[in-house]
Predict the 3D structure of the following.
Amino acid sequence: MRFWGIEPKVFAVFLSYIVLALYLNSRFGTNLRFPLLGLALLISGLILWFICYLQVLRAYQGSKLLTKGCYSRVRHPIYSIWGFLIIPGFSLVIGGFMLFLPITYWLAVVRFIGDEEKLLEERFGDEWREYARKTPRFLPRV
């Protein structure tokens, strides 16, 4: 399995929407923005992403299924961090039609995540199935 998982596919959808949203913003001159809230989400998201990235990089290099740290709470914390913090933060800073970007991101992730999980199941077998059974995909249990 490639290190980047479904990210290239998600990015293609995501980038297409960014171009469209920026065009619509310039065309219709919308000013609805929340830059301070956006920056707070963006910065906290980038810090959490970096922590998770380091954890998954070490596990990937060792060809191990990561089930500890960030991955002990959800199966896909990096997608969750991007979808709930980084992308919404970016959207709030830019504003306008960009505010719909998180929806586009989640539609793409939900569309492609099965492909990544199938590859993980093929690679890690019963270990993955047990982990997937007890660990939620994107939101931790409360």
